[in-house]
Amino acid sequence: MKIREVTLSTTPTPEAIADLRLGDIVYLDGLIYTAREGVYMRALEDKANIPMELPSQSAANFHCSPAAVIREDGSFDLGAVTATASFRFAKWLPEWMAKTGARLIIGKGGMSSKDYKEYFVPNGAVYLSTVGYGTGALLGRGVETVEAVHWHEELGIAQAMWVIRARRMGPFIVASNLDGDCLFERENAKIVQNLDKVYEGTRPAVLKRYGETDDRSDEVIG
Amino acid sequence: MISIDLIQKTAETLMDKAAIEIPQDYLDGLRAAAATEDGDLSSFVLQAMLENYEAAKEDRRAMCGDTGVPRWFVKMGNDARIEGGPIALEAALRRATANATTGVPLRPNRVHPLWRTDHNNNVGIGAPEIEYGFEPEGEWIDLITVHKGGLFGTDYRMLFPSDGIQGIKRFYLDSLVAFGKRGLACQPAIIGIGLGGSKDTCMVLGKRASVLRTVGSRNSDPKIAAMEDEFKELGNSIGMGAMGFVGKNMVIDCNIEVGYCHTGGMQMSVHAFCLSSRRAVARVFPDGRVEHRTDPDWFTDYQRRETIDWEPAREAAE
After folding, report:
1. Chain A CB within 8 Å of residue B150 CB
2. What is the pLDDT of residue A13?
3. Any CB–CB contact under 8 A between B72 and chain A?
4. DSSP secondary-structure letter at B182?
């Protein structure tokens, strides 16, 4: 299969999103903001005002914190950028998407197709996965400037909201589409067919774990 | 006497090298994997990673944005003397960790588990970990830094003698499949397996097997070495590659370390040292020489000794 490469704005049109196919390789142009547990808790639970105009400035929420430092003069030194696993943020994402109009959720490992169908598709949003993981140096090269860092005093550098200007930043992989299909689940379904053969001859442990299953289509997320 | 300033300066260099430069043994292993990979997506991922290592070195920026949790393994020859003693040594390693966090920069990953306090320098309670080992001869000190990713790909299980090798294989496959899906383990990885010890030392053995041994190294026990070969092949027969996509490269190498355990048990741990296998090593001598390398050479015959006393010279003569 030939892999297709797409350049996408971080304020994408509905048509551009609808055109994405599972497994496409994406490069991004425009503003991206990072948000993970610290930002979600501060914005949604503590009801702090989000210090950006969303989604007009950016519809791209990156589950990430960069390897970066804020210098004493207030400028930034940003090195590598990679994602953190997104499934832990499912608790906050529906409200976040409703509030911010995010259309591109970028992270590691994707979400479940249930998540996609329940709140990605109704919001016209898709999931982009980083590659690797992680191509931190390549993604770092795609950062033209750091526009702002919000809430770093309250949340620390790793949890702060970094606003970065991306210029052909990538690669990312399209991991969900507007039908709510999940790239990772598609791959899991292919791999699981081989597993009985691989496990042949092995034995379940004498001491069970409470709640343990031998269902190999099971996942540790979702 | 080994200069404490030289220790700190060397430690800062090691922090930088570990974060930026993929060790040659892992790179060779990944290139070999990329050459055999035929899954279209997993093949794309491996090529992107190879490009990423080049970009990191060219730009002198960290290879991965998650720069892991920096820690130190320190090994000393029996005759090593450090200026200021062990307290000065630990302070130097903590300073080097903090300085490199802003210098490289690294991500300040270390926070308080409950209050999430971040000192923005990767230093805090118990952080960085500093572990020690000793060798019978030498005036040198080996500084080894490892910045392992921390969240997925590691597991522990109490097995029993009746579980046997088939039980060990089962838990190995369970760990690879559970954390390989969606690429949570950031594979293909150096898989370390710890067998025996106690629950805590079993985890330590497995972690050290993954981070302190190189790709291509083999356990000195020929039967364990054969298991390492077999387990590498088994892991790569799952049909899963990078990011959990269909592929044939999950395990760059499999290293197994053992420790004597309770007669009734057979503890097992599995660890994955990821696509950014960050480790760097230097030997510092009292005369001011510093020799950099990437092989920690931790598991010497002395570390794996079974006898009460260590008298290899006499044994060799007999």
Report:
1. no
2. 98
3. no
4. G
Task: Quickly count: other Cβ atoms within 10 Å of residue B106's Cβ.
Answer: 29
For chain B, positions 100-129, list CB contacts with chain A under 8 A. Answer: 101-102, 104-109, 111, 116-118, 120
Give yes or no for a contact between B183 and B246, defined as CB atoms under 8 angstroms apart: no
Chain A residues close to B242, C-beta within 8 Å? 132
Q: Is B108 left (phi over 0), alpha (psi -120 to 50) or beta?
A: beta
Interchain contact, B120 vs A157, CB within 8 Å: yes
Residue of A nearest to B243 (CA): A132
Rounded to 10 deg, the angle between the B164-180 and A183-199 helix axes is: 170
pLDDT in tens, chain B (318 residues): 999 999 999 999 999 999 999 999 999 999 999 999 998 999 999 999 999 999 999 999 999 999 999 999 999 999 999 999 999 999 999 999 999 999 999 999 999 999 999 999 999 999 999 999 999 999 999 999 999 987 888 999 999 999 999 999 999 999 999 999 999 999 999 999 999 999 999 999 999 999 999 999 999 999 999 999 999 999 999 999 999 999 999 999 999 999 999 999 999 999 999 999 999 999 999 999 999 999 999 999 999 999 999 976 555 555
User: Quick one: which of B111, B88, B108 has its CA closest to B11?
Assistant: B88
Residues of A in contact with B274 (CB under 8 A): 133
Farthest-apart Cα atoms in chain A, separation: 63
The sign of the CA dihedral B179, B183, B184, B185 is: positive
Instruction: Kindly report the nearest CA distance between residue A115 and chain B, in angstroms.
Output: 15
Report B:228-247 residues touching A (Cβ under 8 A): 234, 237-240, 242-246
Tell me which residue has tokens 């630990």.
B90
Please state, in angstroms and rounded to a whole number, the distance separating the CA atoms of residues A128 and A124. 13
Which chain B residues are within 8 Å of A134, Cβ to Cβ?
A: 52, 64-66, 186, 275-276
Q: Is the ipTM of this complex over 0.90?
A: yes
| CA separation for the pair B271, B148 (Å, rounded) | 10
Whole-number Å distance between alpha carbons of B28 and B25: 5
Question: How close does chain B come to A146, measured CA to CA in Å?
Answer: 15
Task: Find the range with the poorest average confidence among A153-157, A191-195, B302-306.
Answer: A153-157
List Cβ neighbours of A176 (8 Å cut-off, separation of 6 or more): A22, A110, A111, A113, A116, A120, A126, A127, A182, A183
- Its pTM stands at 0.95
Residues of B with CB below 8 A from A133's CB?
A: 64, 183, 186, 243, 274-275
Neighbours of B177 (CB within 10 A): 24
The average pLDDT across A152-162 equals 93
Query: How close A207 gets to chain B, by Cα (Å)?
Result: 7
B56 contacts chain A (CB < 8 A): yes
Strand segments (E) across chain A: 5-9, 25-34, 60-62, 68-70, 76-78, 104-107, 126-130, 143-150, 161-174
